[in-house]
Amino acid sequence: VIIALQERAMGLSRPHIPYRNSRMTSVLRDSLGGNCRTVMVATINSESGQLDEFAMRVALVRNVVALNEEMDPSLVIRRLKADIRDLKDEIRMLKGGAEERGPLTPDELRRLNEQIEAFCADASSDASLNLGGSMMHVKAAFDLFKQLVQRGGLVGPNGAVRMLTGPGSGGEQNQGGNAADLAEQVKKLRLQVTQRDNEINILVGMLKRRDAAAASASNGLPPPGPNLGPGP
């Protein structure tokens, strides 16, 4: 077993490892060339020549350690879709341009105000405020933040008044900048969206093949062949 593992570690073709040749190697199968970290201590023995040779062979065995974790394809698809939505919002914000609609309705302003108050009241570091990537919502949010500051800020959990913005920080941001840099950012974001779409297509194909294999197994039919899906 040690010789076979040594030859495999040296790059030689050794598809079969005879772990069942002895009870010790059968019990230590996962520790010898498996998914683990193994430490071998060679102690003193009367046959020092064989001990040295055995220790040198064991030292050449290489284990490849990988995390024993399987990702649920449905959860990965959900995360990738959320990433695509965020990237599209960022592209829309970078492109700017006029809004193809009228001003925010009172109901939209009320919901936005509730989101801002919940965001300011949340003291955790994971608090986030999703404005949907619309400059109209961003400007309205800055106006609402300004109104909160003018009313004296918000009362924190310890009873102290927290100011939402400091002096001179303002609520306006420079939306200009280099047009070439913005175009390059938009190009990169579009490429990321395309890559996420391809990953979703691959995961959807895996789910379909898994369902088809399960249905074929229940019906006693051979599983269907692999479907490579659309190219990148």
From TrEMBL:
Organism lineage reads as:
Eukaryota, Viridiplantae, Chlorophyta, core chlorophytes, Chlorophyceae
List all Pro residues biased stretches: 221-232
* Coiled-coil regions listed: none
SUPFAM superfamilies documented for this protein: P-loop containing nucleoside triphosphate hydrolases (SSF52540)
Alphabetically list the UniProt keywords. Answer: Motor protein
Indicate yes or no for the key word Disulfide bond: no
**Residue ranges occupied by any Kinesin motor domain in the UniProt entry:** 1-67
Q: Does the keyword Ion transport apply?
A: no
Q: Which PROSITE patterns match?
A: KINESIN_MOTOR_2
Which InterPro entries does the UniProt record give? Kinesin-like_fam (IPR027640), Kinesin_motor_dom (IPR001752), Kinesin_motor_dom_sf (IPR036961), P-loop_NTPase (IPR027417)
Instruction: Extract one GO molecular function annotation from the record.
Output: microtubule motor activity
Q: Please name the GO terms of the biological process aspect recorded for this protein, alphabetically.
A: microtubule-based movement
The name of this protein is Kinesin-like protein
Identify its protein family.
Answer: Belongs to the TRAFAC class myosin-kinesin ATPase superfamily. Kinesin family.
Which portions of the sequence form the region Disordered? 213-232
